[in-house]
């Protein structure tokens, strides 16, 4: 299919998991893609998977100059941008009592502050019309133990997504929507700091058993939703938060 033919797209965090699957889907749908990542090994791997024609740019979300520099690189590479999937993010599961100022700042810097200022820098680069999709989380829509600060970062994105439509839809033709995945099987779960593989497997098992569909989501399933929100097929969708969670928030 060619649902994104001619679209120029930025995918942050396109080196792993949901972002990488979305980059692959976008390319298959005819888009020209530029992706970002931060970890050198992950960047190298993404380059091998995505091929020579796809720029894979290192842009640390904690470095606002790097985010502004990224908007410049996007301008130089594409001229204008039709689609941005602002997906780069980290999770940190820990009890409310265990959070520190550093763990809180890391989550909010990467998951919120970087996206706030990257979006600001992208506004002059985004075409009219264009589509921006934020990666929020189903944890915004319920109360989940260990999710507290992480869920709050994603709730901030959900709120910004609505405000930015009010600011930028009429004036700039940019529409903002979000996907809110429930648990999706990606390398994110290996980055939670659980060293013992048996405990990690038990955590994943307990997550899966809490999902009415009986399994975690796959990154490709989120990618499909992002393709829809990025494409002209969703031109009338504005300010929507598409929950993909195997029924967890409604059942
Ligand atoms: N997996 C889930 O269950 C789930 C559920 C709901 C929402 N989400 C959200 O989906 C998004 C992608 O997560 P994922 O599951 O695909 O995880 P992942 O496989 O760990 O991918 C995370 C991506 O974000 C990038 N990233 C992390 N820290 C960064 C930083 N400081 N600066 C720039 N890029 C950074 C990573 O780059 P490198 O690879 O270069 O390190 C990677 O490309 C996140 O926003 C996450 O919160 C995930």
TrEMBL record:
<dbReference type="InterPro" id="IPR057326">
    <property type="entry name" value="KR_dom"/>
</dbReference>
<feature type="domain" description="Ketoreductase">
    <location>
        <begin position="7"/>
        <end position="184"/>
    </location>
</feature>
<dbReference type="GO" id="GO:0050664">
    <property type="term" value="F:oxidoreductase activity, acting on NAD(P)H, oxygen as acceptor"/>
</dbReference>
<keyword id="KW-0560">Oxidoreductase</keyword>
<dbReference type="InterPro" id="IPR002347">
    <property type="entry name" value="SDR_fam"/>
</dbReference>
<protein>
    <submittedName>
        <fullName>NAD(P)-dependent dehydrogenase (Short-subunit alcohol dehydrogenase family)</fullName>
    </submittedName>
</protein>
<comment type="similarity">
    <text>Belongs to the short-chain dehydrogenases/reductases (SDR) family.</text>
</comment>
<dbReference type="InterPro" id="IPR036291">
    <property type="entry name" value="NAD(P)-bd_dom_sf"/>
</dbReference>
<dbReference type="Pfam" id="PF13561">
    <property type="entry name" value="adh_short_C2"/>
</dbReference>
């Amino acid at each position: 299919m060619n649902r994104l033919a001619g679209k120029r797209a930025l995918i942050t965090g396109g080196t792993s998991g949901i972002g990488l699957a979305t980059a692959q889907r976008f390319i298959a749908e005819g888009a020209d893609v530029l992706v970002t990542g931060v970890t050198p090994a992950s960047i190298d791997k993404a380059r091998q998977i995505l091929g020579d024609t796809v720029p894979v740019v290192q842009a640390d979300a904690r470095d606002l100059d790097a985010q502004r520099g990224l908007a410049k690189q996007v301008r130089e590479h594409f001229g204008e941008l039709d689609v941005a999937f602002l997906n780069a993010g980290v999770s940190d599961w820990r009890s409310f009592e265990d959070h520190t100022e550093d763990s809180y700042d890391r989550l909010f810097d990467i998951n919120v502050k970087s996206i706030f200022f990257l979006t600001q820098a992208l506004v002059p680069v985004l075409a009219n019309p264009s589509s921006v999709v934020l990666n929020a989380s189903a944890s915004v829509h319920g109360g989940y133990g260990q999710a507290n600060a992480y869920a709050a970062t994603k709730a901030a994105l959900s709120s910004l997504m609505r405000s930015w439509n009010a600011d930028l839809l009429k004036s700039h033709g940019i529409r903002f929507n979000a996907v809110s995945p429930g648990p999706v099987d990606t390398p994110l779960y290996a980055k939670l700091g659980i060293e013992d593989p048996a405990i990690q497997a038990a955590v994943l098992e307990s997550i899966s058993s809490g999902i009415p569909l009986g399994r975690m989501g796959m990154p490709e399933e989120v990618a499909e939703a992002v393709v829809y929100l990025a494409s002209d097929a969703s031109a009338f969708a504005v300010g929507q938060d598409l929950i993909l969670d195997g029924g967890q928030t409604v059942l």
